[in-house]
Amino acid sequence: MMDSSREALKPDERGLGDARAKSQGKLALALGVIAIALSLVLGFVYLISVRRLEREVTRLSQQTEGFSRLVERAQEQSQMLAQQASQAAANAQAAAQQRDLAKQAQSNSEVQAQLARQQAAAEQQKADQATQQAEEYRQAREAELAQLQQALGQIAETRRTAMGLVMTLDSKSIRFDFDKANVKPEYRDILNRIAGILMTLKGYTIAVYGYTDDIGTQTYNLQLSRRRAEAVRDFLVQTGISPTIMSTKGFGKSDPRIPGNSEQARAANRRVEIAIVDSKLLTNGLLVVPK
Questions:
Q1: pLDDT in tens, 95-121
Q2: CATH number of the domain enclosing 185
Q3: Of 59, 118, 213, 285, which is least packed with CB atoms within 10 Å of its CB?
Q4: What are the strands of the beta sheet with 157-160, ordered from one edge?
């Protein structure tokens, strides 16, 4: 009985198993479709994500490049600013050095100016002293020449000149004969008195000038006037006056004392003049003839 009942059940079980199999197949198919759909969806989502990532990567790459460029620019600007800062520091240092040099130069200039002022003051003081000494010397010489003029004026006519005194020995004091140069014995006392006064002089030069009248040639009269000057000079040297301070010169018939051809005029023009000149008025060692 049991065997028959099993056999009776087999067809139904077989149908049921087929149904299950079909259901499972459909389920598997559905699952496969779902899996494929999910795969497609996931693939699409992945693809979208990948593209989005690519775009993001591209954007980030572009931003990175931009940042890199900004960084490069910043570095360049930083270098440029560093160079500018270094140049500014160098300029500041140079300016400081120039300022220090300027201060030093100003200090040196002030020192030099002070020295110049001191030197100028010292030179001014020397000039003032020299002026005072010159004035004192002039006053002393003036007083001395005034006394000398007074003393010599008692012997013969004596006049002041810009450089000293000129004493005229004409016919009123010493008379020279016509065409003669010798000093007559009667006039030696006058020359001795003159020599006594001249020997007291210090710092003076004595020049003796000879003249003639208008008779004769100029050449002959120049020689004659020079001999007359030498005759007076030689007599004064014999009295003790140093010949080193004396000089002679003949002027012939030039510069007559009294114009005319009368005997009185000619006697007055045959004369000798003695010039007494301060030694400081000599020029290049040559006596300047007073007029």
A1: 888 888 888 888 888 888 888 999 899
A2: 3.30.1330.60
A3: 285
A4: 157-160, 164-169, 272-278, 204-210, 246-250
Position 118 in a domain? no
Number of folded domains in the chain? 1
Structure tokens at 104: 């030093």
Q: Find, among 188, 212, 195, the residue nearest to 246 by Cα.
A: 195
The DSSP output letter for 9 is H
Does residue 172 contact residue 178 with C-beta atoms inside 8 Å? no
Strand partners, 246: 206
Check if the beta carbon of residue 269 is closer than 8 Å to that of residue 230.
no
- Does residue 273 sit within a domain? yes
Supply the DSSP string of 59-124, one letter for each residue: HHHHHHHHHHHHHHHHHHHHHHHHHHHHHHHHHHHHHHHHHHHHHHHHHHHHHHHHHHHHHHHHHH
Task: Please check whether residue 225 lies inside any domain of the structure.
Answer: yes
Q: For residue 174, is it within any domain?
A: yes
Q: Given pLDDT bands bounded at 50, 70 and 90, which one contains residue 196?
A: very high
**One-letter identity of residue 199:** M
Using one digit for the tens of pLDDT, what is the confidence trace for 282-291? 544 444 444 4
Is the Cβ–Cβ distance between 169 and 275 less than 8 Å?
no
> pTM surpassing 0.70?
no
Which of 270, 274, 291, 272 is CA-nearest to residue 214? 270
